[in-house]
Amino acid sequence: MKKILLLLSSLSLLSAVAFAQTPRPAGGTAAPAAQPPAGGTGAEGKIAIINSAAFDSEIGELKVKFDALVSELEPRRKAIEADQAKFNELKNNIQTKGGTVTQQVRDQWVEQAGELEKTIKRKIEDYEPDAQKRVAEVRQPIYEKIGKALNQYAASKGIVIVLDAAVAQQQGFLLWAMPTTDITTDFIKEYNKANPAGTGAPAKPAK
Q1: CB within 8 A of 30, min separation 6: which ones?
Q2: Are 49 and 174 in contact, with CB atoms under 8 Å apart?
Q3: What residue ranges do the domains of the chain occupy?
Q4: Using the 8-state DSSP alphabet, how is residue 182 labeled?
Q5: Angle between helices 103-157 and 60-97 (to 10 degrees)
Q6: Cα separations (Å) of 171 from 56, 109, 163, 165?
């Protein structure tokens, strides 16, 4: 039963983990170098940073899609939580009432808990890759738009390099940057203005 406790403790974080672990589409969070004016040195322009970790919650299109995805996955998550509640009840009965019932009843509780442990483990193992796949399906087309918009934004601002702060900090090669180099808020504002969030596509039936 100890194994199942580890699985259950992470259940409430599965959707968040799926969102965080799903790789962002290549080219969706950084802009290629803008072309320098004809006759330029090729070394002119500014360097900026952007925090792509803010996109999912602050870019309207993504937030609407993810809210719909959470609703889509909700039935499966609740089914796992219901099994968890049953497992916890059986575990509590074994621990607190095991000495007051017959051996047959106690053995039944243990057997039921064991079966639930297998069921919950299987459901979680099925749920996580499915959630990650759906997150990738939601992200891909929007991140392609973000990549194009970021390229245009950088070119219009004279920016030749955009570093993804979220990735750079994880890799340990961005130690410090002037706050004025951070274009996250301004880019998101411009993107949301040009791409108003809709109501989101209808959620697919949960499996």
Answers
A1: 50, 147, 150, 162, 163, 164
A2: yes
A3: 2-194
A4: B
A5: 160
A6: 21, 49, 12, 10
Within the chain, residue ranges assigned H as helices are 2-9, 14-21, 55-58, 60-97, 103-157, 165-171, 184-194
pLDDT digits (tens, 9 = 90+) for 66-78: 999 999 999 999 9
Q: Judge if pTM exceeds 0.70.
A: no
Question: Letter for the amino acid at 205?
Answer: P
Instruction: Work out whether the CA dihedral 160, 175, 167, 149 comes out positive or negative.
Output: negative
Residues 137-157: pLDDT tens digits? 999 999 999 999 999 999 999
Annotate 188-204 with b (16+ C-beta within 10 A) or e (fewer).
bebbeeeeeeeebeebe
